[in-house]
Amino acid sequence: MAHTPSRRALLTGFAASPILTAFGAGGLAKDAGVERRPPTSGGRLVGAAVRMDQIEADAALRRTLLSDCASVTPEIHMKWDALQPAADTWRTGPADALVGFADRHGLLVRGHTLLWDQSTPAWARERMLETRDRSVLDRYFDAVLGRYDTVGEWDVVNEPIDTENGARDGLRANTFLRSYGRGYIDHALRRARQAAPRARLMINDFSFDYDNPVEARRRAALLRLIERLRSDGAPLDGIGVQAHLDLSKGPLRPEILQPFLREIAGFGLSIAITELDVKEDDLTVSIVERDQRVADEVRRYLDIVLDEPAVQGVTTWGLSDAHSWLRDPGAEGLALNRGLPYDADLRPKPMHAAIRRSLTA
Ligand code: G3I
Predict the structure, then answer these.
(1) Strand, helix or coil at 153?
(2) Is 85 in the pocket of ligand 1 (CB under 6 A)?
(3) Does the C-beta of 119 come closer than 6 Å to ligand 1?
(4) Which residues contact 196 (CB under 8 A, 6 or more apart)?
(5) Rounded distance, CA 189 to CA 192, Å?
(6) Does ligand 1 come within 6 angstroms of the Cβ of 76?
(7) For the segment 199-227, what is each residue's pLDDT rounded down to a tens digit?
(8) Most informative mutation of 23, 51, 53, 76 for ligand 1 (most atoms within 8 A of CB)
(9) pLDDT tens track for 271-322
């Protein structure tokens, strides 16, 4: 629910209110009787992206999250357009509620995401492009990082790589690049470090996983970016590898993925698998076969990436197929993408077992 901030709130960036939630006063009560697993699996974190409205509405989903996961990523609530849809309007209810829920249940929160072109509200986009004034970005960072100061890890910059559309140096020609030049990433990291000195600061991006020319160029561009940031002394702590796997892209190859991860680790960075799911390529075969293909892909992927000690954890981009971003909202039954650990009725699928097996192997 939108609220109009006070003058002081406008100065500090957020309404000086206690936790506000669009989902009922005070958020969710602590779930009774849920057995919490140890916070890590084989020393690595297991997490899932969630939406507060979904876990609020569904006790079974909540129980599943609490029994499976040590960390949560807000799927949409901490994006700029969700938090500050207009320059003078903050909507912090869902993000506050999610952080409150996580705190009550001892879940860690991955902050996702401070800068992403696709989730930048129109007003901020226009202001940055018109004025090229970094204070637009700085004020936003200070407000968000200050409010969510228990968040231990932030995707500071999301999806800065684009090797295919005429971008410079493999950097995406996004609003930030066009407004501030390629130094925007260094600046964002430094500002984030200043506002959240204890948080781990990450760059998060996709399509590094398969053996094809585009993904090869993307891997090379990311490594070049890391090298430059390192030599400039930018405070980068890790890389988020999204891992939206896709069965149409051919076999995963350890000889491609492992050296890439080793190079990232060689810069002294940690690696998180941040958005794991699987896009299917044949919805006409039986559900049993589809689920097995998805599980096999996940098992293959995790066996490769978990071989790299710098990989600190695995987050799936949702839990249930019913909520997958890959879901066609008009589709039913067979047409639902089955690329998450649970089916639409929250029954665990072979992918769930594959994740457990790989993490405990
Ligand atoms: O909030 C409106 C709601 O008011 C309206 O009724 C509804 C109608 O469709 O739209 C709602 O907003 C949508 C929002 O999800 C909540 O459902 C947005 O249109 C839609 O764009 C948004 O999609 C999310 C997308 O990021 C953009 O934020 C997806 O759920 C989310 O899975 C996706 O996640 C991204 C990661 O952040 C970055 N990596 C890729 C990944 C998949 O695209």
Answers:
(1) strand
(2) no
(3) yes
(4) 145, 149, 151, 154
(5) 5
(6) yes
(7) 999 999 999 999 999 999 999 999 999 99
(8) 76
(9) 999 999 999 989 889 999 999 999 999 999 999 999 999 999 999 999 999 9
